[in-house]
Amino acid sequence: MIGLLQRVSHADVVVEGKTIARIGAGLAVLVGVERGDTEREGIRLLERLLAFRVFADAEGRMNLSLRDVGGELLLIPQFTLAADTAKGNRPGFSRAAEPEQGRDLFAGLVRLAKRSETRVASGLFGAMMQVNLSNEGPVTFWLQVPPAG
């Protein structure tokens, strides 16, 4: 499972002209589900997202996590993160999970996140979304939890 996280001052997701999700300061995370991913990879990715130290401490160093700063979390399904771009000019998606599996694992990730003490919002799997955000820094990291198989 892949998480492309961005430290944001705010972010929102719009579907068909309506804002369906909005957060203040925290992390906006594009989530890609790969073939072979299970709930195990989702749990590990969430653990890393909540504990990853990307927020500044009093000395301006990235030493604080989302939990430490009481930030908010926006999870956005993004199947193109699993694209194979190694050759040619057109991405291949053979590494991406089948849509039903991706939908289920993304929904499970959101459910797990909502059990944490973090405020969580999410995009809509399979929808055409407009994602608006203000990336602070900019700070962007790629986290990947490879399938155990």
Describe this structure in words.
- The protein is α/β, with parallel strands linked by helices.
- It has one domain: 3-Layer(bba) Sandwich (D-tyrosyl-trna(Tyr) Deacylase, Chain: A), CATH 3.50.80.
- Helices cover 22% and strands 38% of the residues.
- The chain has three helices and eight strands, in the order E-E-E-H-E-E-H-E-H-E-E.
- Strands 1, 2, 3, 6, 7 and 8 form a six-stranded mixed sheet that branches. Strands 4-5 form a two-stranded antiparallel sheet.
- Strand 6, helix 3 and strand 7 form a beta-alpha-beta unit.
- Helix 1 crosses helix 3.
- It is globular and about 45 Å long.
List keywords for this structure.
149 residues; globular; single chain; 38% strand; alpha/beta; two-stranded antiparallel sheet; 8 strands
The figure for the number of domains is 1
Overall average pLDDT: 96
The parts where pLDDT drops under 50 for at least 5 residues are: none
Query: Which superfamily, in CATH terms, is the homologous superfamily?
Result: D-tyrosyl-tRNA(Tyr) deacylase
Strand content: 35-45%
Indicate the radius of gyration in whole angstroms.
Answer: 15 Å
